[in-house]
Amino acid sequence: MTSAEEAIEWFGGLSLFAGQVLRDAFRRPFEFTEFLRQVFEIGWRSAPLIVLSGLAVGAVLSMHTRSTLERFGAESMIPTALAFALVKETGPLVTGLLISGRVGAGIGAELGGMRVTEQIDALESLAVDSFKYLVVTRVAAAVVCLPLLTVLMNFSGLLGGFFAEAAISGASFAFYFQTAFSSLAFSDYIPPTLKTMVFGFLIGSTSSYLGYNATGGAEGVGRASTQSVVLSSIFLIVANVILVKGIFFLYPGSGS
Amino acid sequence: MSVPIHRGQDVSQPAIVVESVSKSFGSRTVLNDFSFTVPAGTTFVLLGRSGTGKSVTLKLICGLIKPDAGTVTVNGADITKLESRELAETRKHMGFLFQSAALFDSISVGENVAFPLRRHTKKADAEIRDQAQALLEKLGLGKEYDSMPGDLSGGMRKRAGIARALAVDPSILLVDEPSAGLDPITSREIDELLIEIGANRQATLVVVTHNMPSARRIADQMAFLDEGRLLAQGTVEEMERSEHQLVRDFMKAPQGG
Q1: ipTM
Q2: Coil, helix or strand at residue B16
Q3: How many domains is chain B built from?
């Protein structure tokens, strides 16, 4: 089999896997307890990473924005420019990439480890549908958590920007946030935030597929973990182009 | 071939019938037109050299993998044709001790044992904990409820695996290499546990092992696999008198060669 044929077969396998996730997500019995556990693992446990990254990204973006807008005497536009940059693209994309690193690697390694140590077979032998229990719950949790983490990233970014701006210009908290939010419309905020549900699906499905089908002992687990991060990130970046184009099509005003 | 009556079991109804089963992985044929019957209530030991398909046979019986050809009938149902929900129902009457015990390493030993009870019974949490604790105590792991699987020795993990497999009181117990990686004393303790399970619970056991002293202790019936085919089947005595040199050599070997 040539590498092109192998790639086509791999994508076919991933597509069928993702299709099964969508189908099983709406079939009883629902693994609600495990889903909540995964929301805690993927959402709550990622929150510190998102907040810290958001503060840093916001501060850096604010400094760059200031150095650019200063040339035109438009420093008062700094909060607005930062809010647009964060909410429309930087927040969703950085959140997606951070989660594909933290969660994608985690899911790939955890499910891969369970596969090679026969824990997935053990689940099946105990009359548990391992696909619904392990895969559907993780993908669903990633879909639910990504928009929430994106909101957290956006606010942390704005806060980081405020700290940077306050240190330089002494801007007040009230003025900064009032200016930041004054120009944002529904179409600026909701579609880019909700598109991260697709990021969550891509991260969850890709990393679960690689982990669930891992072979080859510890080396296979390592490979599944690494590939989960690499492929999730690539899929996410490519999907983002399509999603942004789709948002511009559905909400023409959001491009202006 | 004589089928002995053991432990007062009615052997007229076979618990497991594997018929003309073939299984390949890629170009490698593991099982080739393989058949055997396990009478209810007996302990059936599968012997054979490494890589001859013994563990694959256990997974076929549990429905974890499907054969390329042939049928696997468990308690009267051909599990190769069952829908996933029917297969799950059948599995509720089966226990599986994996070679590595395959305990869920993200939850405690006690919660591993409680796991099938939480999934398949409507008992209260306290009752489930008590039942899991009682099972662990019976297997000499009474103080290990809150320990994590990674903190246990190999023998303790095996015993915890047995406790989990027994939690829902299965009528069939599949055991993969119970002695692997264990010292002779721990290995003997595990054997005695398996004999006790077979006797007290009147369960059907299918055990894969390379350990001949262990096989001799626990087996009512034995089958020998070679290159994916059944080479010989019978009692310990019948296997010792087998027409096949390989089987006789294997039976003589202290650790299965």
Answers
A1: 0.87
A2: strand
A3: 1
